[in-house]
Design brief:
Shape: globular
Strand order of the largest sheet: 4-5-10-6-7
Order of helices and strands: EEHEEEHHHHHHEEHEEEHEEEEHH
Structural class: alpha+beta
């Protein structure tokens, strides 16, 4: 919470007001943790506060879902059970709560952390990055000069804590297309410890009922997406992963060595391939690893009804 260099807090959503020494403030869960030197050797001078932006958190139409950058994780988690979400036959909605639960977050993070903040922090284990990249999300970015541009979320994050934003640019929203939401999906996640940060997180989609799209996150410094015409056999999938992910792209930190992340990426990718190539059957979305909420069949079964962090 060392923010003793801040001279002003400005409530604005206008990138034209940005200047050197500024930082955009949404939920602030990471910004306040890192302090005044969050973005380099020069201290922050002003915070541009998006708290009163007034952006509609979630907009659902026949074309898909628009998530405002200021949408909180709690608001996103509520989407599948809401009238807007539960009325849609979109299998991709099953990924929402699986990814939100991957935060394994306190109630403070759950209610303050935002979709945009998770994307812009750009950590490999960011589960909203996983969700949005896995569903072919497209980010809308506002520029200081008054213009805007769009970038696929799979290309938005460029490395560990790195992204494509230029100074002063503001992430406005992410659009998840109905074409991706309407596909059959599979989800796998692993961490080294119970309730630990994701070390590997993979999302698979069966597009048009025949073609496999596989998105690798958490194991890698940036999202890696592979697309196949049809569902490949195990050998072709393994070879494609090795071609797409060189050794240096696997993340290396206390939450998993690169060799482990590679092995688990191959393992979980094969699980997804096998699941999506088999006939579809009704089930809760399978999740690898031991993290909250407990899986059916364990000592505690079913999703928790406790408040996050309880």
């Amino acid at each position: 919470m060392d923010m003793n260099t801040i001279e002003a807090v400005v409530r604005t959503t206008d990138p034209a007001q940005w200047r050197d020494g500024d930082a955009w403030l949404a939920g602030g869960t990471v910004l306040f943790s890192y302090g005044s030197y969050a973005f380099g050797p020069q201290p922050l001078k002003r915070l541009l506060d998006l708290g009163k932006a007034g952006w509609t958190p979630i907009t659902v139409t026949g074309d898909g879902i628009e998530l405002a950058a200021t949408c909180t994780i709690a608001q996103l988690y509520a989407l599948p059970g809401s009238p807007e979400g539960s009325g849609r036959t979109w299998p991709g909605l099953d990924l929402v709560r699986a990814c939100c639960d991957s935060f394994v977050a306190s109630f403070k993070v759950w209610n303050m952390s935002t979709v945009g903040g998770n994307l812009c922090t750009s950590l490999p284990a960011g589960p909203i990055i996983s969700l949005c990249a896995g569903l072919d999300g497209v980010a809308t970015i506002l520029a200081p000069g008054g213009g805007s541009r769009t970038v696929p979320v799979a290309e938005f994050v460029t490395g560990d804590a790195k992204n494509c934003l230029a100074p002063g640019e503001l992430l406005r929203s992410v659009n998840l297309p109905a074409s991706a939401l309407s596909t059959r999906v599979a989800f796998r996640r692993l961490s080294l410890s119970n309730l630990g940060r994701s070390g590997v997180l993979l999302i698979g989609r069966l597009d048009d009922g025949t073609s496999l799209t596989l998105t690798v996150t958490a194991a890698t410094k940036r999202p890696v997406q592979l697309r196949f015409e049809g569902v490949p056999d195990a050998d072709r999938l393994a070879a494609a992963l090795d071609d797409a992910i060189p050794a240096g792209l696997y993340h290396d930190d206390i939450h998993g060595l690169p060799a482990w992340r590679r092995d688990m990426t191959h393992r979980l990718a094969e699980e997804i391939r096998a699941e999506l190539s088999a006939p579809e059957r009704a089930h809760d979305i399978p999740v690898s690893g031991d993290f909250w909420p407990p899986r059916a069949g364990s000592a505690q079964t079913g999703p928790t009804t406790l408040s996050k962090g309880a």
